[in-house]
Amino acid sequence: MHAQSLNSAWLATPPGETRSQVLRHVLEHAAHLLPTQGPIGVFIHHNTLHAFEGEPFEKALIRAAAMFDAEIVDVVETISSEFPRSALVVILATLLILAVLLRSILLPIKAVLMNTLSILASFGALVWIFQEGNLSALLGFAPLGFVETTIPVILFCVLFGLSMDYEVFLLTRMREIYDRTGDNTAAVAGGLERSGRIITSAALIVVVVAGSFVFAEIVLIKALGVGVAIAVALDATIVRALLVPATMRLVGNWNWWEPRWMTRILAGRIASEAEAEAGTQ
């Protein structure tokens, strides 16, 4: 539809919802001219379109786009300022919990670094696919030229929890074997053997479920599904099956180093498997 006919349709519609629906329809189809697509429905829902009644279509569209630009800038700035603090809280809480659970200093740090690898790999894949447009024909979407602002935040929260869950499965089994044998090599091999099938099965389920999101029509949902599927697949194969055992084998018994102050604090509160077995005998 040409601008003249759009302008005629705009002026010819009666006041109220009908005219707002025309503007909504045009905004949705002209979304590629605006800085983002995802929150456009939220913007239209929360802002009054009746203020544009009686204006030519082109002028109303420009005003609506300007309001939309300002709101998007506010959302991006808010997310950018709050996300680092939220991520820091999540990471510090994870380090503390894993340090108490595993009674180690190096293992929690290594776990966070390994989680970061899979998350960053997922972010890179999203840029390659949804920003640069690779595989767009296969996945059935039009490249946006950018990645929606909320996607990295949501993916970080979801993937950090999933990846850490697999890490806990693996490291707790290794810790149990090390407490019994005191042999780092046996602990790494035995822990991987005992938890490998569980991690692989759980990851496969998540990959299949998240992968089904690619059939969604909304690009945001499609991107989230692809991001989760890629990250979990990499985490359960390359990271957990290769990088984690390899680094632990190289570090050796330093994996299980526990400073004296930690031993004093945790003594009598959280017992290792060897201490628990000794207490029952």
Cα distance spanning the termini? 84 Å
**What gyration radius follows from the Cα positions, in whole Å?**
26 Å
Element order: H for helix, E for strand:
HHHHHHHHHHH
Number of strands: 0
Identify the overall geometry: globular
Note the beta-strand portion: under 5%
State the helical fraction. over 70%
H/I helix tally: 11
- Contiguous low-pLDDT stretches (5 residues minimum) are 1-10, 29-53
List its salient traits.
mainly alpha, 281 residues, 0% strand
How do you describe this structure in short?
The protein is mainly alpha-helical and 281 residues long.
Description of the structure:
By secondary structure, the protein is mainly alpha-helical. 76% of the residues lie in helices and 0% in strands. The longest helix is centred in the N-terminal third of the chain and has 46 residues, at 57-102. It is globular. The N and C termini lie far apart (84 Å). The model is unreliable at 1-10 and 29-53 (pLDDT under 50).
List the helices and strands and how they pair.
Elements: H1 3-12, H2 17-29, H3 40-46, H4 57-102, H5 106-131, H6 136-139, H7 150-181, H8 184-211, H9 219-251, H10 260-266, H11 273-280
Helix pairs in contact: 4-5, 4-7, 5-7, 5-9, 7-8, 7-9, 8-9
